[in-house]
Write a structure and sequence with these properties.
Layout (H helix, E strand, L loop, with lengths): L9 H5 L30 E6 L18 H4 L4 E3 L6 E3 L2 E6 L5 E6 L13 H12 L8 H5 L9 E4 L4 E5 L7 H4 L7 H4 L33 E7 L3 E6 L18 E6 L3 H9 L5 E3 L2 H8 L2 H4 L1 E8 L3 E6 L5 E2 L2 E2 L3 H7 L2 H10 L2 H7 L5 E3 L25 H10 L3 E2 L5 E2 L7 E7 L3 H15 L4 E7 L1 H11 L4 E6 L9 H4 L26 H15 L3 H18 L3 E2 L1 E10 L2 E2 L17 E2 L2
Parallel strand pairs: 1-10, 19-20, 19-21
Antiparallel strand pairs: 2-3, 4-5, 5-7, 6-7, 8-9, 9-10, 11-23, 12-23, 13-21, 13-22, 14-15, 16-23, 17-18, 24-25
Helix pairs in contact: 11-13, 17-18
Length: 594
């Protein structure tokens, strides 16, 4: 996922994002570090910490967190994380046609970009037709916009200077939420989507990288980027042209400046919080007891939003394809990984209750599904969801049935006598995830499987998962929400986050011999059906079946669902903490009281 909740930004609500860490990737921390305590730092400000640098400043090309877009962009609408209601942002209202195939949005009056230029219907049409629906641009947003079994895309047209119409080829239940993706500036980006560089690629694909001068980034959200110092900090400044005003007519947001300190250790962030340099921190289980007794002394409160909407899991690389004639995965290992009994044995061999008790200090529950437990479409175990309670004997039995055997050292061998050994990757820098990986290594050794656990720097880790595809197994997470269709880009074999059997992304070398299994196709079909169906009971049945399949075939072996918690200094007014939104999802309303 994966985190004590990220800011509920427009991108996250419509895409599942790869998350960097288990608990503090995008948790908001605040106050002024010593080096920033200057006369200019006396404006109302919030200092946040993240574990690593962002990969891009181009919202359309981003699929990971941390990213800046929750602060810098808005879409047509949003979903309130407290009550689940859909609310207008850039659109003041919308109307759905009787046959449910058209949505007409009416834009707010007086919208502007951060450079003062008008934000209009033309920007909406440009963003969708020229970027999100452009097949030459690899954006995960397009996966969520696809409709029906044929995966057709909507059409978007301007009606007049205030209204824009979205048309879908058939009724599509989650489509309204799909229109919340960030709206981008046509007057800045239009040329880049029509011009190719010397390599024949659209200039847009290299537009707004992390080396872009901040003043060139034109946004519509509550904040604009003011400065980025690689591996040090990101500074946001209040956008003076942001549209929101309070009931007294005062412009929002109230907080003038936000600073993200890039802190590569959660222990360091904890020290900064305890010393008073930070005003909030994501509370991971190993910090909870320590911080709980300091609430009064430290003038903060620990908020618990309940179970996080993030997942945590291990996944095996099931891709059987080749690049330049070389298999992506060692064929010997690929045979193991693609054996469902092997994956089930691994699931039975992981002691998730001990992981919950030791690593998570009991602050969570075992996880069994890709769908959030608070979603109305979640299938509880008591209603049929398969679970893998720790049972090493069952694991060994499954392995023997699958043709594996043990040598005199009790090491697992395949039917050709090869020792079963693979590398498990995760991102470095987080104690929780590293502890999980260490336990998995130990648990699997008890059934004779040798695991080389290798935490990597985030960028190197993601390069393997999404580019080179040369990995055995990974420990990672995804974020989501109440709507299962948020995961369309995970469960579609063509999706950008179908990581266990990833297709090449745009611009990457082709893969020869990639195979898509019948169960992958079936899960994808169920997600399509779930989005087409409007009868809520039938929608539940469809997604229940999809969860039964994901637990039977285990493309992801789910681990622990942690509580979403943050410790926040009492000097902030307007906090509405939730598992879906975190601490600062309503950043425009929050004030610093002293």
């Amino acid at each position: 996922m994966t985190l004590t909740k990220t800011i509920l930004n427009s991108t996250k609500r419509f895409l599942l994002l790869i998350t960097i860490i288990a608990f503090t990737a995008m948790t908001i921390t605040a106050c002024s570090p010593t080096k920033l305590k200057t006369s200019t730092a006396k404006v109302p400000q919030l200092v946040t910490s993240i574990l690593s640098d962002p990969k891009t400043f181009n919202a359309a090309l981003s699929s990971e967190s941390p990213n800046i877009f929750g602060y810098t962009y808005e879409g047509l609408l949003t979903q309130n994380p407290i009550n689940g209601k859909i609310e207008g942002t850039l659109a003041e209202s919308w109307e759905i046609s009787e046959d449910k195939t058209k949505i007409t949005f009416t834009m707010r009056e007086g919208l502007k970009w951060s450079d003062g230029e008008p934000l209009t219907v033309d920007d909406v049409v440009f963003t969708y037709n020229d970027i999100y629906l452009n097949q030459n641009i690899p954006t995960d947003t397009r996966d969520v916009l696809r409709v029906g079994k044929d995966r057709k895309l909507p059409t978007v047209r301007k009606i007049d200077n205030k209204r824009v119409e979205f048309s879908v080829p058939e009724p599509f239940r989650p489509f309204l939420l799909s229109t919340g993706a960030p709206i981008l500036p046509a007057h800045i980006l239009e040329k880049s989507v029509k011009t190719k560089n010397k390599d024949g690629k659209l200039e847009f694909l290299s537009k707004w990288g992390v080396d872009t001068p901040p003043e060139e980034l034109i946004v519509n959200g509550p904040y604009k980027l003011e400065r980025y110092d690689t591996s040090q900090r990101i500074i946001f400044r209040r956008n003076p042209y942001y549209w929101r005003k309070d009931v007294q007519g005062k412009s929002q947001p109230y907080i003038e400046r936000i600073i993200w300190q890039i802190v590569e250790s959660t222990d360091t962030a904890l020290l900064q919080f305890r010393s008073g340099d930070l005003d909030a921190i994501g509370v991971s289980p190993d910090y909870f007891s320590l911080l709980k007794v300091q609430e009064k002394q430290g003038n903060f409160k620990i908020y618990n939003g309940g179970l996080s909407s993030a997942t945590s899991f291990i996944s095996f690389n099931l891709n059987k394809g080749k690049r330049d004639g070389k298999p992506l995965v060692d064929p010997i290992k690929s045979k193991w990984f693609n054996n469902v009994q092997f994956r089930q044995a691994v699931a039975y061999a992981i002691d998730r209750q001990t992981m919950l008790n030791n690593t998570f200090r009991g602050l969570g529950k075992p996880q069994n599904s890709p769908i959030y437990v608070q979603s109305p479409y979640f299938l509880p175990p008591e209603k049929g969801l398969k679970v893998y309670t720790y049972n090493p004997d069952k694991a060994k039995q499954l392995l023997l049935q699958a043709g594996f055997k043990y040598n005199d050292k009790n090491l697992l061998l395949d039917d050709q006598g090869n020792e079963v050994r693979f590398t498990l990757l995760t991102n470095a820098g987080n104690k929780i995830r590293e502890s999980m990986g260490s336990q998995i290594k130990q648990d699997l050794s008890k059934i004779g499987i040798q695991v080389d656990f290798a935490p990597l720097a985030w960028n190197a880790f993601i390069a393997k998962l999404s580019n080179t595809l040369d990995w055995d197994a990974c420990l990672i997470g995804l974020t989501g929400g109440l709507e299962p269709n948020d995961g369309a880009n995970v469960w579609s074999p063509e999706g950008g986050l179908h990581m266990f059997n990833q297709k090449p992304q745009a611009g990457q070398k082709p893969i020869e011999g990639r195979e898509v299994t019948p169960w992958e196709i079936k899960i994808n079909d169920l997600y399509i059906q779930g989005a087409q169906e409007f009868d809520e009971e039938k929608v539940k049945e469809i997604y229940w079946e999809s969860q039964q399949l994901t637990q039977e075939y285990l493309p992801f072996i789910y681990l622990v669902n942690s509580y979403a918690m943050s410790a926040i200094r009492n000097r902030f007014q307007g906090i509405q903490f939730s598992a879906l939104g975190g601490a600062f999802w309503n950043i425009h309303e929050i004030k610093v009281t002293k």
